[in-house]
Amino acid sequence: MPALWIAHVTVTDDDAYGKYAALAGPAIAKHGGHFIARGGRYVQLEGKDRPRNVVAKFPSVEAAEGCYHSPEYQEALSHARGASERELLVVEIDE
């Protein structure tokens, strides 16, 4: 079943996070993911407000997990650590 990778992010260092974003996109695509929302308008109804919200769709939970643990994504993530506060989850969806 397909899965959504959902990230809620507050960027604290634009330059470093820009390096993350440049590397993360290709890593996500390599693992079959594609973005369905990146930034953009949102309404916070509950919980902690994070001004950047990203959703990518993957073929499966396993593909999303594989992406996260891949060397390519871990390299990207090294630029996000210390440059952002974030929550990331993967959830299976019914289609």
TrEMBL record:
Native organism: Aliiroseovarius zhejiangensis
Cited Pfam families: DUF1330
Tree of life domain: Bacteria
Record InterPro entries: Dimeric_a/b-barrel, DUF1330
Domain called DUF1330: residue spans: 2-92
Gene3D superfamilies xrefs: 3.30.70.100
Protein name: DUF1330 domain-containing protein
